[in-house]
Design brief:
heterodimer; A: alpha/beta; 6-stranded parallel β-sheet; 7 strands; B: alpha/beta; 10-stranded antiparallel β-sheet; 14 helices
Chain lengths: 253, 430
């Protein structure tokens, strides 16, 4: 794949818990980006959100990290990163992206001689945000995103969005002037196999003692059982707490 | 809590498993949860029974691969197993027979059953122990210790009961009435409505357990094969060992998908008597799917010239044909012309001496008058048995009939009457 742009896919999210569907996103996105003929996917990063996000039912990040690591043990290109979850406060997605891009750029420049004609500085991989179609709808939620952040995520970096069930991300793009403006930075991947393993449903099944085998890797299921995660109690966590990004916005208003 | 008697259950799923996917495996898990939630059942075993190669479904790869992939997929399940009996049979086996076979196995192995894994629920959480220790239980299992066998399938299979000539009515009755069905539904499929609309299903509705799939999980094997052909990833749709196996053996190519493309699905060969030329049946459903077809096996139709004729004399004597006619007949080089006209088949036997023509619809009785041969009236019936077209001619002569089949590009014919068998072979002219 000579001459192609190296690309790293970054997925931010709760991963509460990580499911086979999350892992499918990476596989689908990689296939799609390769098929454009323009890109060569060189890595994938799972970045679980920090506990400060305040989402209802969110279990401690140390567990979510451990489960993600177990799930990705056998992957040779996707890894888990804990920087985001280690930050004191909830971190905007764009900040996480800037961090990872900076890291990659620094690594590239240290390992190379100064850029020459044959090896231009643009050997730093591009970083794109990988997400599902439901993520596109979040852009519509008032106060959840800052306009300049959306601009940066979609415009400067780029988005790879995997459609999910009947959700059509086209509509979300169409309904947003901001997104429409950066249409060329948004790659839509059509998932033909309807496979909507929602983590919410998984947690419900676990509370009820139902099987989640073949929806999560066995290693993750074992971990959940050993640590007795996902109970009635854990689902009530943050029940009365406002989602952090909304809380921050309220303060700023 | 008072001790309860629970019925032991074994779930049997038949299908192509071409290849097995996480969705197939999920079906077992969902079914078990549902049945055990009723408090009346204890699911002790699951059986995956891949169909044999003689099912002749388009794109069906060799049974040994499908078996091995299913084994790999279930190696870390402590209750789901793979069974090869169905795939080892030389001809396609009706589902009812497979169910019957496994039921008989259950009864006979009840005494020395070592694989009975106890999946008793403890409290609200199911604990799957790796070793086979029996969980502390307040449930008592009394006399009716033989597990019941239930047929596990997707809603599509239930709906396929309505497809003409895919199932024998008595088989449906047996599976639903005597054994019972556990049916996993998906969004967009209304199993209850279908049950309501079918008399036989409605009659046995108490034996049909409908399980709603709470995760939309439509990992169809067709999609998986398509992705593989296109070099796309199928990771996390199938268990990892299966993904590796497929890669190591280079299964599922454009070529493998064309296998059986011109062949008719076995059950349709066996049962059908409908207008095959003008009906194109194209149904795509979960574990059984029909390919589009509009002709009988091309192979039998054509013009064929005789190359060998063994024991024609013995056969004719059994028919009571006179010496003079026999002497002439033995010298003849016969030609067979087999044609299809709509849903009727016409078979002509042509020679310089006499011609004989008869026509029929498969599975439909017809009156036959063997004019010019032994001049007898028979009530004849032609049916498919596997890849052989078999005719029984009921009449004055006992054990009379014939069978046609293709082997090594030649048309074979076995004629029998009483204890005599005549074997003829023809090579294709056109």
């Amino acid at each position: 794949m000579a001459g192609r742009i190296p690309l790293v896919l970054l997925a931010c999210g709760s991963f509460n818990p990580i499911t086979l569907q999350h892992m499918r996103l990476f596989e689908l996105a990689r296939d799609h980006m390769h098929q454009t003929g323009l890109y060569r996917v060189v890595g994938g990063i799972v970045s679980p959100v920090g506990d400060g996000y305040g989402k209802q039912g969110l279990v401690a990040s140390k567990h979510r990290l451990a489960m993600a690591r177990l799930a990705l043990q056998t992957s040779d290109w996707v890894s888990v990163d804990d920087w985001e979850s280690q930050q004191a406060d909830w971190t905007e997605t764009v900040v996480t992206m800037r961090y990872h891009y900076g890291l990659m750029a620094a690594q590239c420049h240290h390992s190379k001689d100064p850029p020459t004609n044959e090896q231009p500085a643009s050997d730093v991989p591009q970083l794109k945000l990988l997400c599902g179609a439901d993520f596109m709808d979040t852009f519509k939620v008032p106060g959840l995103w800052r306009d300049d952040h959306v601009e940066e995520v979609v415009g400067r970096f780029g988005l790879v969005c995997v459609s999910r069930g009947s959700r059509q991300p086209d509509r979300a793009i169409h309904e947003s002037d901001l997104l429409s403006r950066h249409r060329q930075g948004i790659f839509l991947v059509r998932e033909w196999v309807h496979n909507e393993i929602s983590a919410t449903e998984i947690r419900r099944a676990l509370r009820r003692g139902h099987s989640v085998k073949y929806l999560l890797p066995d290693s993750v299921i074992d971990y959940i059982r050993e640590h007795n995660l996902y109970t009635q109690e854990s689902e009530m966590k943050n029940k009365d707490v406002k989602l952090r990004p909304l809380a921050m916005q309220a303060i700023q208003d | 809590m008072a001790p309860q008697e629970k019925t032991k259950l074994v779930l049997l799923a038949c299908g192509s498993f071409n290849p097995i996917t996480n969705m197939h495996l999920r079906m077992f898990e969902l079914a078990r949860d549902h049945l055990e939630d009723t408090g009346r059942y204890r699911v002790v075993k699951g059986i995956l029974s891949p169909v044999g190669d003689s099912y002749k479904k388009k794109g069906l790869i060799g049974a040994r691969h499908r078996l091995e992939m299913a084994r790999l997929a279930t190696e870390n399940s402590d209750w789901i197993t793979v069974n090869d009996w169905e795939s080892q049979q030389s001809e396609w086996v009706e589902t009812a027979k497979v169910v019957r076979h496994h039921h008989a196995e259950l009864i006979s192995s009840e005494d020395n059953d070592n694989d009975d894994v106890d999946t008793v629920r403890c409290g609200k959480r199911r604990k799957l122990e790796q070793n086979k220790s029996i969980c502390q239980s307040s449930y008592i299992n009394t006399n009716a210790d033989t597990p019941q066998l239930k047929f596990l399938c997707g809603a599509d299979v239930l709906e396929s009961f309505g497809v003409p000539n895919l199932w024998k009515p008595e088989d449906i009755e047996e599976i639903v009435g005597q054994y019972g069905v556990v049916c996993i539904t998906r969004c967009g499929s209304d199993a209850e409505k279908f049950i309501n609309q079918s008399d036989v299903l409605y009659e046995h509705r108490k034996n049909i357990h409908v399980v709603r799939e709470w995760v939309t999980n439509e990992i169809s094997a067709t999609h998986v094969r398509r992705a593989l052909r296109r070099g796309q990833s199928v990771r996390y749709l199938l268990p990892d060992p299966v993904v590796r196996y497929i890669r190591d053996h280079s299964l599922y190519s454009a070529e493998s998908e064309q296998k059986n493309a011109d062949v008719i699905l076995a059950p349709l060969q066996r049962y059908t008597s409908t207008n095959l030329e003008s009906h194109t049946l194209h149904l795509d459903f979960h574990w059984y799917s029909l390919q589009t077809f509009n002709t009988m096996p091309v192979s039998l139709c054509g013009t064929w010239d005789m190359v060998s004729n063994v024991n024609f004399e013995g056969f004719m004597i059994a028919l009571g044909i006179g010496l003079y006619t026999r002497k002439i007949a033995l010298k003849l080089k016969l030609r067979k012309v087999i044609e299809q006209a709509g849903d009727r088949y016409v078979v002509k036997t042509i020679s310089t001496f006499r011609n004989y023509t008869f026509s029929f619809r498969v599975n439909e009785d017809f009156q036959e008058f063997t004019k010019g041969m032994d001049d007898r009236h028979c009530k004849s019936l032609v049916a498919w048995e596997g890849n052989k077209l078999v005719c029984i001619q009921k009449g004055e002569k006992k054990n009379r009939g014939w069978r046609h089949w293709i082997e090594d590009d030649k048309l074979h014919l076995e004629l029998h009457c009483e204890d005599q068998v005549c074997k003829q072979v023809f090579k294709r002219v056109i």
